[in-house]
Amino acid sequence: MLVLEGRAYIAGRIEPRAIGVEDGTIVAIKKQLRGDPVYRYGDALILPGGIDVHVHLREPGMTHKEDFASGTESAAAGGVTTVVDMPNTIPPVSTPEALRQKLRIASRSAHVDFGLYAGPASGRDVEALRAATAFKIYLAETTNAPAIPSFEAAGEILAAVAGTGAYVAAHCEDPRLFRKGVATSLEEHHRVRSPRAEASAVAELGKHRATTPLHIAHVTSQDALGARPRDATCEVTAHHLLLDVTSKLGPRAKVNPPLRTPKERTDLWQALVDGRIDMFASDHAPHTLDEKSVRFEDAPAGVPGVATTFPLMFRYVRRQTLSLERFVAMFSENPAKLLGVNKGAIAVGRDADLVVVDPRRIESITASRCRSKCGWTPFEGTEGTFPTATFVRGQLVAQEGELVSERVGRMITARQG
Ligand SMILES: [Zn+2]
Fold it and tell me: Please, what are the domains in the chain?
């Protein structure tokens, strides 16, 4: 039996504990356990591994930006033990063949566990894509992703997914409300694709949903949160919480939906603290610096982020802006519930996906620490607290950001019953 000793977060409390792991599963939690090997972490915290339900690992088709190996190495470096990859790769995951191809690629190269989104073009495509973890719909066009043509068509996809056990994640922006004109700055981009357009898409989608579990991707504003159907879940990115239109990053910080004003960003924080947002997700969408170093209007949308959610947001646990309980719910527990997987908590019977962090350690975030192939981060030089070790089903995958075991990742499956 493998044993980890440290101050573990168990059922909402931190206690000095020994966690015993066999065959990738937590089999015992005691004050003391004998085992081999034993990892002694002393005063460091042991938390459940992170689950990021929104990443773009760019393989196949755009592997100069990222691939499954580099993207999941970046995940492990940032304490993320499960990622769910978006379907807008080349070819898009809109056919069973494309889904099988991506599963083959991910199975042979992923360093952490993974799920795969399918992107059906219509309700008729859903049945053939049932092997996917979940489904993604884009209500407005964004980089490399065509939009579903209407809310009625989106409703047909939602209806087709009902009863499959999967959920639908929606990129909510209503293109009918986009302002005319080309945005040449972060401020203009925010006005063209406004919070009103975002809220409208959320509200319209609410009218067309059946009983299907619905997840709203990357909310950026109070308006969007207010429009959300009662039982829909939602996610927030670190970049929408920490950057706004006053950023000096220009095209590098171009994302969809856009960064908002400082006022809207403050409101988003309040919603997070109040518990009105269910989970963090990075929307890790890497592009190379060359691709981003162009005029604003020509730049592709997206920033890398799978490695930085933990170090950035854990700072606020240290500063007591965010409770540890809320952090773990946002980073691990709630995404595990959404996916229906046997992860997201330190408990006997759960997968031993664990991260170790020394809360006293503070370092500067750098691109090299983040390990993404794209080679940059919008948070270069920002203070953060990285995990010191990341375990996937009991295997030490990353230590101090260095990859220790390779290609241990598996496709996730929903828990029975
Ligand atoms: Zn995305």
Answer: 49-339 (3.20.20.140)
